[in-house]
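Sequence, please.
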């Protein structure tokens, strides 16, 4: 479940996420009221109705936890109780915001999980799931996630909120080795597809070790072992283009597998290709190396090969519309960068808010219609501008679209001029009428490589998420800078969806 009762919070991390969940709940209710000209009434005490709602939500175990809740929340306590009271009093009138609040209710999440479990969809396991881009694409294509795993706590929190259909005991934070060695504790179902992008470090051609034997690539090794243990019908593994130099070794690793299930031995055939997200109507040029492995009995029974799957993916992409960066940047509030340090976490009308009203009709934007699946989304999440120093403000302002750190206009103020030979893209103003350059996790460190083409600031996390084809109501949790890391590491959702739709067509 998403809430751990306040009396069961053990670590500082648990407490921080608990308070963030309360903050999100409060803000969702307040932004609903702002949008609809409603007023939240201040209450003097905690009614029985509110207590029951807090219990259903999972925020408390019983009424006896109320004093502890007040201590933990401190000055936020009254705002929270007022917000919960408003929801209880207006349950039939808040349909617009209810789905987002339901994701913060243990009781509602259980109902969604029962509903999802009753669907006879194809099944998926997602290792190194990150914020959930791959999973979301497969879900949109009609798959049920049965297990997801990542080691980053903030990624698990983001995944958890946005995927309420997955029981918490099937969303595992930890080392993949622990799961592979105890796979029976986590998976009872037959799994149709295993996906994942294991981080790999040992790609050097000078390295004489096989990629699977390099200690730096132990996560890849355990991903392959997971495939051998789970024995899925199909495997989709994605990685950086640099892994191409060892691609044939990866094929050999998969084709050497002797996977045993119910006493039957299975093997796999593998193909790989570099796919570009812009071919899937993502407003970004992002190349990823994709491996597809198909189990031998599926090859025979369905008369398919991994190469045929790739052919069909390309065929489906043939008539896809190509979108440009500006398609992702339209229909969202213009912002100014904060000019005072340590303001990234502070909400403001000028610099943006973690949850804000969407005052644009996104259904007139073909790109947003695609990433939002034709839904009107009344709110916008994570649209907050990043702090900009005086020097960087001047650099951003002087650069034209397509200019980089070597441009003469900034040579007198460029702080890294002596390193331009290797870091010329340290500063880069994006070109509005082309697909965006690749969104990377490095944006967590700085966003100089992704300067907004028209406004004097970097892309916000929400704009980066749009470029990655996440829907506007996909909320990224954790500290502001960590949202960039989650977004940059993700597989573009529509790219995942395009791959999933082809796999589904062949498996059904």
């Amino acid at each position: 479940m998403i809430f751990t009762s306040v009396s069961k919070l053990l670590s500082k991390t648990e407490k921080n996420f608990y308070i963030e969940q309360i903050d999100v709940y409060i803000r969702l209710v307040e932004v609903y009221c702002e949008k609809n000209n409603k007023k939240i009434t201040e209450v003097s005490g905690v009614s029985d109705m509110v207590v029951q709602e807090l219990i259903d939500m999972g925020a408390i175990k019983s009424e006896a936890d109320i004093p502890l809740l007040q201590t933990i929340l401190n000055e936020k306590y009254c705002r929270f109780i007022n917000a919960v009271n408003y929801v209880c009093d207006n349950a039939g009138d808040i349909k617009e915001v209810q789905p987002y609040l339901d994701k913060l209710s243990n009781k509602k999440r259980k109902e969604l999980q029962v509903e999802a479990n009753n669907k006879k969809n194809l099944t998926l396991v997602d290792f190194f799931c990150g914020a959930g881009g791959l999973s979301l694409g497969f879900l949109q294509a009609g798959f049920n996630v049965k297990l997801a795993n990542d080691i980053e706590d903030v990624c698990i929190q983001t995944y958890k909120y946005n995927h309420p259909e997955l029981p918490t005991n099937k969303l595992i934070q930890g080392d993949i080795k622990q799961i592979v060695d105890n796979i029976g504790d986590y998976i009872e179902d037959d799994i149709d597809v295993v996906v994942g992008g294991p981080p790999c470090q040992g790609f050097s051609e000078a390295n004489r070790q096989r990629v699977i034997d390099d200690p730096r690539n132990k996560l890849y090794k355990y991903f392959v072992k997971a495939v051998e243990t789970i024995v899925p019908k199909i495997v989709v593994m994605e990685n950086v283009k640099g892994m191409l130099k060892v691609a044939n070794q990866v094929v050999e690793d998969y084709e050497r597998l002797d996977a045993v299930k119910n006493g039957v031995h299975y093997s796999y055939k593998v193909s790989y290709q570099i796919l570009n997200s812009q071919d899937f109507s993502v407003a970004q040029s992002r190349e990823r190396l994709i491996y597809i492995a198909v189990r031998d009995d599926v090859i025979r029974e369905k008369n398919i090969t991994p190469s045929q799957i790739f052919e069909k993916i390309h065929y489906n992409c043939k008539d896809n519309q190509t979108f440009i960066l500006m398609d992702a940047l339209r229909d969202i509030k213009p912002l100014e960068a904060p000019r005072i340090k340590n303001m990234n976490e502070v909400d403001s009308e000028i610099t943006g808010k973690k949850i804000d009203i969407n005052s644009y009709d996104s259904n007139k934007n073909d790109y947003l219609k695609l990433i939002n699946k034709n839904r009107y989304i009344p709110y916008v999440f994570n649209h907050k501008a990043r702090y900009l120093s005086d020097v960087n403000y001047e650099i951003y302002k002087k650069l034209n679209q397509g200019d980089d750190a070597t441009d003469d206009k900034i040579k007198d103020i460029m702080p890294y001029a002596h390193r331009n030979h290797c870091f010329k893209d340290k500063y880069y103003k994006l070109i509005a009428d082309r697909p965006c350059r690749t969104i990377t996790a490095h944006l967590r460190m700085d966003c100089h490589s992704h300067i907004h083409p028209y406004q004097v600031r970097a892309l916000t996390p929400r704009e980066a998420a749009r470029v990655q084809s996440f829907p506007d109501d996909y909320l990224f949790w954790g500290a502001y800078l960590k949202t960039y890391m989650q977004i940059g590491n993700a597989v573009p959702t529509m790219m995942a969806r395009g791959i999933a739709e082809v796999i589904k067509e062949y498996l059904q």
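The mean pLDDT is 94.
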